[in-house]
Amino acid sequence: MAYDIDMIKKVYDQMADRVTKARDVVGRPLTLAEKILYSHLWDGEATTAYERAKDYVEFSPDRIACQDATAQMALLQFMQAGKKKVAVPTTVHCDHLIQAKMGAAIDLQSANKSSSEVFDFLESVSNKYGIGFWKPGAGIIHQVVLENYAFPGGMMIGTDSHTVNAGGLGMVAIGVGGADAVDVMAGMPWELKFPKLIGVKLTGKLSGWTAPKDVILKVAGILTVKGGTGAIIEYFGEGARSMSCTGKGTICNMGAEVGATTSTFGYDESMERYLKATNREDVAEAANAVKEHLTGDDEVYANPDTYFDEVIEINLSELKPHLNGPFTPDLATPISEMGEKAKENDWPINVDWGLIGSCTNSSYEDLTRAASIAQQAVNKKIKSKSDFGINPGSEQIRFTAERDGLLQIFEDLDATVFTNACGPCIGQWDRSDRKGEEKNTIVHSFNRNFSKRADGNPNTHAFVGSPEIVAAIAISGRLDFDPTRDKLINENGEEVMLDEPQGIELPTKGFAVEDAGYVAPKEDGSDVEVKVAEDSERLQLLTPFEPWDGKNLTGAKLLIKAWGKCTTDHISMAGPWLRYRGHLDNISNNCLIGAINAFNKKSNFVKSQITGEYDGVPAVQREYKKEGIPTVVVGDHNYGEGSSREHAAMEPRHLGVKVVLVKSFARIHETNLKKQGMLGLTFKNEEDYDLIQEDDTFNFIDLEEFAPDKDLTIEIVHADGSKDTIKAEHTYNQPQIEWYKHGSALNLIKKQNAA
Fold it and tell me: Residues 618-628: pLDDT tens digits?
């Protein structure tokens, strides 16, 4: 039986009435995304037709998932909310704090020793508040969710941007910051601006070397890293139905890389097969009873231009294998063109590592397709020119793959099988051939490839591809290798070609596992004591942020003017900093250390207007805070893209930054800033970014009149005494302004619970 089956059946029992009512209110056929959104309204049945990209709407998600790095801060906040138990089914998954180095067994043992304090904290908090706990080694959150919790037509939120992976099972699953999750855990509505809708019509059928990963690599090239912002991407058509459930999950997973709110597919036979294969026949049966409501209306898919804000059409029969990168996941290149492009850009041709796995591509089918290539290398006596690393998606995947001999195939190529965890995908990789100033290339089946993402080295050029393409290129050792046409020389000096990959959608013997790694919480956890040592370096109880004094903000100094791409990795790095995710003051020592200063093009090197000297961003900001001087961060386009980590909002808030003023925001980061009581503003005229000088002082002269849909006026005072007055826009509605007034959304929750 599936987890939380009664909750799932309740969703389905009310879906027909809610979808029918929504269709009447909206007055037209509905997309799948609209059906799920309107059937999860906080107030029940629809009474209003919401305007896309304008109306803020309150929703009632079905469940929550948290990974260990973000769960620490989320649960530290929930502990302040005054609740005895979470209001909706919630799980915590320990997958981020395990460093890939020697191999699964040794690395897991090392993580359990080095992070025992954090794991114990998370398990005890989970036990106290009725949260399901998945132990270290159990698997990567999104694969575990797909195998156990995702269900067609459901809505979930998760404290990780790749929560969207569950769209592969027909959910609307959305990545959020911890404060958003706390709202829902506490039994409150979750707010989202009603998304735009992008339709992707898939025709034809994948074959040969082309994989589901290539669909999203192509879409990323079309939309870019910000083209999906504020939108749900809905895939449909014969091509969508022809793909496996886990292949759909891969496509949805990487939708985060185009800024999409989420991505989803309509319920079909592949999802039914997957539910049954993962011992959820009861969910499949319940879904089949309402399947007409678990996909878009026929009229929508017949005339998509009428119902979507944007439509993209891709013929899978013509789609070619891609590699995306380096340094950004939207730089899409067909592998047939990679050699020429690499030469033009002076990208290193020799490939040092091929990494397969992560939450994006670690299913059984993924491993079989990559293993079919690896087996050919063994059979045809081709010696791999690159190192291999494998991260299975879950203990169930690992156990089944080992039983079926898949892992042995990789080990025969001297691959290292890492723990069922994120590992190199999030920078948790102690790379054995650590590179210095030398430019180098790696290929992987992950989702992100920002500078320094995998190994902390800015000289590493990371390229994203499907598991089978990664396997082929790693075996060849060359970035310009095209397995569809190029030959290799084997150990006998013979020219050989790799045959097309062969995959198995679901294991013929079924999935198997001895210990999946799940720990159920106590029914009544009131007697569970959660301890946080006062001298802990890893955990710190939170102190509420100060509320706004209701006055205009004046005399604010520029902390940094960030130039170019500034992701959450730049604002709050992962890698070794993950150890401090539960200690706000300690992790704040990485605040904006990766951002590039527009005035000297250096990272972590900004001018203090107190001393006139240059120093690291956290050090300069701590001096401003000590002196009681407010500060402003200025940024470029799509500021805060990437991970959902709310630390990127909490750290500047903790250190005394008052305002983040940018050309445009990534969705999750803008919300995180609002939740933490920060002012997140955008230039009304983005050219005003160029007016900002290094020694500027900012006066927000009409903040006392802060109101929805009302621009704010900023007086910029330059060092020579000259001034510029500009306008800034914002997207705060009245409830969000209340968060700002109270100092944070959590402060408001506590006040309401105390009333």
Answer: 999 999 999 99
Is pLDDT above 90 for 576?
no
Q: Which of 18, 93, 293, 645 is catalytic?
A: 645
Domain count, the chain: 3
Shared domain check, 355 and 258: no
- The reply to whether 222 and 110 lie within a common domain is yes
The separation between CA 713 and the C-alpha centre of its own chain, rounded to angstroms, equals 34
Structure tokens at 480: 């310009």
pTM given for the model: 0.90
Among 448, 570, 667, 742, the one annotated catalytic = 448
Judge contact between 604 and 572, C-beta under 8 A: no
Query: Which DSSP helix (H) or strand (E) runs through 342?
Result: helix 335-345
Q: Which of 160, 180, 387, 688 is catalytic?
A: 160
Selecting among 270, 384, 476, 643, the annotated active-site residue is 643
At 212, phi and psi to the nearest 5? Answer: -50, -35
Please report whether residue 535 resides in a domain: no
Query: Are residue 108 and residue 232 in the same domain, yes or no?
Result: yes
Would residue 96 show up in a list of annotated catalytic residues for this protein?
yes
| 581 within a domain of the structure (yes/no) | yes
Residue 603 annotated among the catalytic residues of the structure = no
Catalytic residue among 96, 322, 453, 538: 96
CATH number of the domain enclosing 230: 3.30.499.10
Indicate whether 523 belongs to any domain: no
Report the CATH number that the domain containing residue 724 is assigned in CATH.
3.20.19.10
DSSP-derived secondary structure letter, 664: -
Distance from C-alpha of 361 to C-alpha of 350, rounded to nearest angstrom: 23
Mean pLDDT of 132-137: 98
Give the structural domain span for 194. 5-43+57-315
- The candidate with the shortest Cα–Cα distance to 266, out of 435, 432, 30, 105, is 30
- 10-19 contacts at long range (C-beta below 8 A, 24 or more positions apart): 11/39, 11/62, 11/151, 11/153, 11/154, 12/153, 12/286, 12/287, 12/289, 12/290, 14/39, 15/39, 15/153, 15/290, 15/293, 16/290, 16/293, 17/45, 18/44, 18/45, 18/46, 19/293
Using the 3D structure, point to which of 451, 473, 496 is the last residue of a domain: 496
Answer yes or no: is pLDDT of 216 > 90. yes
Look up 643 and say whether it is catalytic. Answer: yes
Residue 30 within a domain: yes
First-to-last C-alpha distance (Å) of the chain: 41
Q: Which helix (H) or strand (E) holds 60?
A: none
Residues 285 and 335 in one domain: no
What's the burial of 20, exposed, middle or buried (CB within 10 Å: 0-12/13-18/19+)?
middle
**Catalytically annotated residue among 4, 62, 95, 366:** 95
DSSP letter assigned to residue 428: -
Catalytic, 608? Answer no
CB-CB contact of 744 with 678 (8 Å) = no
Residue type, 470: V
Q: Which of 571, 711, 564 is nearest to 638 (CA)?
A: 564
Among 496, 517, 540, residue at a domain's last position: 496
> 594 with 452: CB under 8 angstroms?
yes
Same domain, yes or no, for 348 and 265?
Answer: no
**259 close to 640: Cβ distance less than 8 angstroms:** no
Same domain, 341 and 259: no
Q: Are residues 310 and 328 in the same domain?
A: no
- 197-208 per-position pLDDT tens digit: 999 999 999 999
Contact 175, 253 (CB under 8 A): no
Same domain flag for 234 and 352 = no
